[in-house]
Every structure is written in C-alpha cells, then in structure tokens.
Amino acid sequence: MKRIRSIKSMQRVVRELTIKKKRLSLVPTMGFLHEGHLSLIKRAKKNTDIVIVSIFVNPTQFAPNEDLKKYPHNMKGDLRKIKKAGGDIVFTPDAKEIYPEDFQTYVTVEDLTKTLEGKSRPGHFKGVTTIVSKLFNICHPDVVLFGMKDYQQAIVLKQMTKDLGYPIKFIIAPTVRERGGLAMSTRNSYFTDEQRKEALSLFYALETARNMVKAGKRKTAIIEREMKAVIKATCPSAKIEYIAFTDFNTLSSVKSIRKDTICSLAVRVHKVRLIDNMMLMQHKKLK
Ligand code: AMP
Questions:
Q1: Does any domain span residue 286?
Q2: Coil, strand, or helix at residue 168?
Q3: Which residue of 37, 54, 127, 283 sits 20 to 30 Å from the alpha carbon of 88, by its own alpha carbon?
Q4: 43 in ligand 1 pocket by Cβ < 6 Å?
Q5: Which range of residues forms the domain containing residue 63?
Q6: DSSP letters of 11-34?
Q7: Centroid of ligand 1 to alpha carbon of 222 (angstroms)
C-alpha cells in the first residue's frame, strides 16, 4: 500500500495506472475510520483493481461553530485498517494544497441541498461538492463509493456526477451499525458508554417508524409524533433538529408513506449532532 500526499504525485500515479488499463475506485473519507468506512473499501476492492482511499478533513464543509478543530484523527491506525481492508493507495493531501490562498472556484448543487442537512448546515454541501469534484479531477476513478449513512450527501453527489458528466459509476452502500443499532460514526467517539446508549434513541425512533409502516400506518404526522415520544423516553436531553419523510431520489417531502419513502433525522445528543435514516417502504433494496 502506498501513501501519497501531493496532488501532482497522485495525478502521476493515476496516469500510470490508467495506461496499464487498471480500473480505479475512490472512497473519500475524513479519517478516524470505523467498520462503516471499511465496508466501502472492501466493496471497492471487489469492484475494481485499485482502491484509492482519501483522508482529508475538509474545512469548507464545516461551519465556524462546528467541530473542525476537534475532529478526531489517527493516521497510523487508519493506514493499518485500510491496508487490512484491501486499500492500495491512501491519498492524504494537505489543506494548503487543496485550498491555496487564491482559491475561488466552488461547485454547488442547487435544489437537492435546500432541505434536511442543507437547511440545517448552510454552506455544508458547497464544501462537500467542491472537495469531491476536486478529488474526482485528481483521482479519475471509474467507481466511487459513498455510505447511505449520509444519504442526502450521496444523492447530492450523484446529481453532481451526472450534471458535470463525470464518467463514474456511483455506489451507495448500506449503513453499518453497532450491535445495538447505533449507526457507526466518527462522532460516536465523543460519547461516554452511558451517552452511547442514549444515542440509540435515533435508531429506536427509526425502528418505531418502520414497524408502524409494517403495521399499515401511512400518515407521516402520526409516525413523527410517535418517533418524538420514543426519543423523549429513551434520551430525555435529546434535541431534535428535524425528522423528515422524503422521497429517496428527489428529497421532496411526503405526507403519506409510499414507495421509496425514507425517514431521516438529525438529533443532538449531549451536544453531539447525529444523523441517521431508514427506508420505510423500499422499492429497490440496497445491496
Ligand atoms: P466521513 O469520513 O464521515 O466523511 O465518511 C466517509 C464515507 O463513509 C461517507 O461516504 C460516509 O457516508 C461513509 N460512512 C460513514 N459512516 C458509515 C456507516 N456507518 N456505514 C456506511 N458508510 C458510512
């Protein structure tokens, strides 16, 4: 496994691999890797010859009041995990090279970023789409993999890939959860064991929604009320930012559950902002 730090070296290596007709995949991450990230790397390995994993804590997707400065990192541990999962190249660029002082070009996806996370975190997706398009331009992947955990991000990036004409196959992989159901997230590392149990309230709420749908309930207002009650009961200090029912592809809000409705939520548990989601009525199963 090779670690590459500069854009120029990465581009040179990509050129050489392309000449050799190797198929490349890219798994963009912000590091401090867990099984969720590793599932993407393992899957990439099955799909392509060479797996590139980028580790870059992207400053432009964090608002000034967010956790950029204290975002956890463990490069040594990450490199070990990536190697074990089958990664071939780890791209770890420097923020100064990605965003030189005179940087002034951004990529934005319009409508899909106006709701959910885009509404709660203004400017966030502009940072995400800009860094990912820059990574696409540097790494020229044939396949790119993103997690369903950040579902809106995946949909926004899929749209960007299509709109800008990148010839890249897009894979959205299922959320990997801890044993109790908590979606794996770098931010879970901020919790004590006790708080981690409370963080399960998001999963309990989503399970409640899914069970209600299975039992024939369709009205989102009623399901939402029940989800709020579950969160209140299992994590009294939780602050719900949003609970939303939307169409999987268009992100438009739905009042009555139908095919392809997904429920997403953002909740602050002991000041840590968590997001999670669940398909409530699946059209096509993620594999
Ligand atoms: P991050 O390092 O948080 O930017 O995440 C890098 C990639 O890993 C993104 O595509 C995430 O959606 C994905 N990811 C994060 N957590 C999980 C998880 N629990 N299961 C599957 N994919 C995940």
A1: no
A2: coil
A3: 127
A4: no
A5: 2-173
A6: HHHHHHHHHTT--EEEEEE-SS--
A7: 30
